[in-house]
């Protein structure tokens, strides 16, 4: 059958879609060239905010109307349960995020409608697959037990579980043998790797080291794989910014100098209410540690504006924290109550227009700050991994530095061809808020 997978949401979903595609190909199905050509369409959904869920469900509704075999997978399925067929009466099958491994069998069985929510221990299809790319996402930790007040992720992705290190290392080794040069390790709170359940190499006794040991040790094992040029990971929590993690940054040049460290708010009162388990000061201490050994260490974050009870003073605290932390980039979300979460029981009392205003203020701040941060790099030489011709201008090449900053540069027609995954040293000649312009060294 010719299939197509549409993906909404985070990197975790991108990886899950890749896994589903690989399983369908292995079962003898083929990729469609586009929607018209597809006989089977699967939408991978997000539910972290109501708008995100509506987008995925709306898209699925349109596809159902087109009369194709249509499936919905991912987080919105787990949240909606049986109700998914009330929302989408023509839907053929629906599969929760921990049941995606069942998709080939569901299609082989051909009995519809069908709903598989998946239990906690999982038909989950954890192994990563990439086709010909140089970058791969690798799940190391699934689920989440943090239960931040606003967040639906623990309800839909289940309990935290760390994959055995042996399995992760073998998988990355296989990816590298197939041409992968950069991996991004995924987990909702990835530095908690090996904390809830020991995830050690089988030969080792489980360690009591938790935060201090498990993840840094995984990095060490991955850094020993020849041919793996870059190791990234996301998302992080300040508690995981231990001295041991700092040592891994210092000792292994493959470990990229970028951390996505969601802060959510700069107000202690709000952080406490959210159940984030850090204060503003603790968060900033983690930032100081990271920037201490490399002032150009790139930091990105997520922020929520308009959380229940967020006052102007709370918002200004977020604003000043973002400036103090000097984020290189940030993602701002307008608070959206999610049914069943703790904060959904509180009045959603920041008016829509005010959420919008706070969003715009933070975006404008970030634009100025991003430009200022990037401008400091003008005149320096950065090592860049080639990703390919730039999307906007085919005469230019595009890649990223260790800090995940996008770098673009002109290639002269007579210079030797660049290959994706190659490392080049470039001089930065200009800076924008989200992009660096470079030139070849001569
Ligand atoms: N596990 C990650 C976050 C995953 S959700 C972490 O803790 O770092 C991605 C982002 O969505 C969050 O960082 C948060 O900023 C945003 N988000 C989550 N729930 C939200 C809600 N109910 N309303 C608005 N934004 C939300
Ligand atoms: Fe959600 Fe908090 Fe878990 Fe992140 S750490 S997925 S924000 S509950």
Protein traits:
442 residues, alpha/beta, OB fold (Dihydrolipoamide Acetyltransferase, E2P), 3 domains, six-stranded parallel beta sheet, five-stranded mixed β-barrel, 13 helices, globular, binds S-adenosyl-L-homocysteine
Description:
The chain has 442 residues and is of the alpha/beta class. It is 33% helix and 22% strand. The strands form 5 sheets. Strands 2-1-3-4-5-6 form a 6-stranded parallel beta sheet, with helices on both faces. It has a 5-stranded mixed β-barrel with strand order 15-16-17-19-18. Strands 7-10-11 form a 3-stranded parallel beta sheet, with helices on both faces. Helix 12 runs parallel beside helix 13 (352-375). Bound molecules: S-adenosyl-L-homocysteine and iron/sulfur cluster. Iron/sulfur cluster (SF4) binds next to helix 6.
Mean pLDDT comes to: 93
Number of E-state strands: 19
Gross geometry: globular
Strand content: 15-25%
Fraction of residues in helix: 25-40%
State the strand order across the main sheet: 2-1-3-4-5-6
CATH fold category name of the largest domain: pyruvate-formate lyase- activating enzyme
- Domains (count): 3
CATH architecture of the largest domain: Alpha-Beta Horseshoe
Structural class: alpha/beta
Largest sheet: 6 strands, parallel
Determine the CATH superfamily of the largest domain. tm_1862 like domain
Number of helices: 13
Distance N terminus to C terminus? Answer: 52 Å
Rg measurement, Å: 22 Å
The small-molecule ligands in this entry are: S-adenosyl-L-homocysteine, iron/sulfur cluster
Under the CATH scheme, which class of the largest domain? Alpha Beta
